[in-house]
Each structure stands twice: as C-alpha cells, then as structure tokens.
Amino acid sequence: MSKTTERIEEERQHSKGQVFLFVIFIPTLFSIALIYTILTVADINITEKIKTASGHIPFVASSKEEKNVEEQAVQKSKEIKQLEQALQEKNEKVHNLMDTVNEKEMAVEQLQVQVQQLKEQLKEAEANKQEQEIKMQEVVNTYEKMTPKKAALILSELEADKAVLLLEKLKTDQRTAILEKMEPAVAARYTVLLSEKVSEEVE
Prior knowledge:
Residues 66-142 form a coiled coil. InterPro entries: Mg_transptr_MgtE_intracell_dom (IPR006668). It holds the Pfam family MgtE_N. The chain crosses the membrane at residues 20-39. With 203 residues, the protein is mainly alpha-helical. The protein has a domain at 146-203. It has helices at residues 2-41, 46-55, 58-145, 148-157, 160-169, 172-181, 184-202. The radius of gyration is 61 Å and the shape is rod-shaped. The model has no long low-confidence stretch (mean pLDDT 79).
C-alpha cells in the first residue's frame, strides 16, 4: 500500500512538471520567439527598446546615472587640470613679459640719464667755448692796441698754433702790418699755416 502511494505521488509530480513544461514554459518561449521575429521583421530595434525600458527600472537607472556622474566628474577633472595648466602657462608668459618690460624701462631710464649727462656736458662745453672766445677776444683787443712791431715781436715768441690763432682773429690790415714786421722766415711760416687753416675750414 505504501509503495503504491509513493508511485502515485511520483506520477503526480511528473504530471505537474510535464504540465508546466508543455502548457506554460514552451508556449511562453515560443510566444517570445515569435514576437521577437515579428518585431525584427517590422524593423523595430528590440535591443534598444529593452535598454530604454531597463532605464526606467529604479536600480538599473540609478546605476547608469551613477556611472554617468562618475564619467562627468572624471571629464570635469581633466578639464580643470587643462585649464589650470593653461592658466599657469599664461601666468608664466605674463611674468616673462613683465620682466622684459622692466628691463626695457631700466634701459630707457639709463639712456635718459646718459642723454641728460650729454646735455650737461654739451652745455658745459658751450659755456667753456664762450668763455674761451671772450678771453681770446680780450687778447685780440690787446694786440689790436699794440703797434705792429711790438705785436710781431711777441707773436714770434709764441707757439705757432697759438700765434696763428691770434693772427686769424685780427683784422686783415692789422694782420698784414704785423706780418710785415716779422722776420721773413717766420712771416712765411705763419702765412702757410694761415692758408692751410683757411683751406681746412672751407673743406
């Protein structure tokens, strides 16, 4: 009796399994395959639809959002590093330009100092020249008041360049009178020097 009951129970379990397999699983699988085939023939992207549908599932959607956030964070981090590097390069260029500008300003200041010094030296030279001309004119006036003979004696004792300079400043008639009172050799030498000086001034 017990064996019969066990056999009946086993047959029932096999019957349930067969019913599930033939009545539920196989028809469902066939239906899914048929629907997939029909939709594929109808040019509907089943894979994309499944992905879209899965995006609305809370867990799947949140996982994708977290992944997107992480990717965006990585991208933003790269962009920030690139911007920081670009900013550093710009700052270095600005610093170099500032150094160049400072060097140029220092060079300009030095040139301005040199120009000012040259102006002062020129002004001083002009003042000295005017003073020398005044003194020379005073000496010339002294020689003009002398007699030609006395002037000739004094000029003959001076250095040639100084004597020629004084003779050049005198009026033509006074210079002629003085040269006439000099010894011929001295007068001839001074006359040659005067001619050479006139030629140099003309050139």
